[in-house]
Structure formats: structure tokens, C-alpha cells
Specification:
Order of helices and strands: EHHHEEEHHHHH
Radius of gyration: 20 Å
Shape: flat
Number of strands: 4
Largest sheet: 4 strands, mixed
Distance between the termini: 23 Å
Helix content: 40-55%
Oligomer: single chain
Structural class: alpha+beta
Length: 160
């Protein structure tokens, strides 16, 4: 295979697209009055759900989840159209638990506390937190949020 020196056509490709978020209660009405949801958030239920944002995506794969970046809900419009109503309802309640966990950093904080009890260093804990779906910035933000000191940023040539 030979290396071609052909140039790309003069086109514009957007690299940073601003995502559009919707208000949770604009679409998922009545959840602020559900006992199970009130059990998750307590007296702050209406406040939390009023502030919660939803990002809808169109795909035949996936259901719903919580963004690792900022804790907003991510929901498949295909699942909303084709899923069983009871399953969707239960999934919303389930994901709201993760919204609370995200806001508290609870899931990771428990693991970090246990890692410290086991004698892990910040470097080891940082390595533990690293997963393939998080970029370096997201990993550093998570580490900061759960009280783990990130190692110095690597120095070197910038990527092009």
C-alpha cells in the first residue's frame, strides 16, 4: 500500500457539537409524586427532578443510563417507542438511583475508601478509576470529585 499525498477536499467538519438537553419533568411527568422516587431523593425530589436534564438519542441499541460526565439522564428514543411501558417505568426509577449516586459520588467514594483501607496509594486508586470510556479530562474530574490526587499530566508533544 502506498502513501498518498492527496489532500482532503475543502470541507467543514464540525468537531465540537453542542448537545441539546431537555428538562426531565417536561417529558417524564408525575415521577416527582412516585413513592419510590421520593424514597430516592426525599424532600428534595421536586428540586432534583426539576434540575435534571435528559439527552435523547436515536438508536436501536441501548436503553437509558446516566452520563458519567455530569449525571444527566441519557435515553434512547427507540426504547421509548418500542419498549414495554412497565420496563421503561422501572428503568427510569432505576436510573434515578444512579442520578443520586452520581450526585453524591457515592459508588466510587465507597470503593475509594475501601482502597485506602487496603493501603492503596493515590496513583493506584487513579489507575483503578481509569476505564476505556473516559477520556483523560473526565478521569481527572472523577478523581478530583472522589478525593483522589491525580498524577502529574504527562508532558510531551501535542497530538495533531
Amino acid at each position: 500500500m502506498t502513501h498518498s499525498s492527496a489532500k482532503l477536499p475543502d470541507v467543514k467538519i464540525p468537531r465540537n457539537i453542542r448537545l441539546r438537553y431537555e428538562r426531565f419533568l417536561d417529558h417524564f411527568k408525575g415521577f416527582e409524586d412516585v413513592d419510590a422516587v421520593r424514597g430516592i431523593f426525599g424532600p428534595r425530589t421536586k428540586t432534583v427532578l426539576s434540575a435534571l436534564k435528559v439527552e435523547f438519542f436515536s438508536s436501536k441499541w441501548g436503553y437509558m443510563g446516566v452520563s458519567d460526565e455530569d449525571g444527566h439522564l441519557v435515553v434512547s428514543t427507540h426504547y421509548l417507542r418500542t419498549g414495554n411501558r412497565r420496563d421503561i417505568y422501572l428503568d427510569v426509577v432505576h436510573e434515578l438511583v444512579h442520578v443520586r449516586q452520581f450526585s453524591e459520588g457515592k459508588a466510587y467514594k465507597v470503593c475509594i475508601a475501601e482502597g485506602r483501607r487496603l493501603g492503596m496509594t493515590d496513583r493506584e486508586l487513579f489507575k483503578y478509576l481509569k476505564v476505556e470510556w473516559m477520556d483523560a479530562g473526565e478521569l481527572r474530574r472523577l478523581a478530583r470529585n472522589v478525593g483522589v490526587k491525580a498524577p502529574p499530566k504527562p508532558r510531551g508533544r501535542r497530538k495533531r
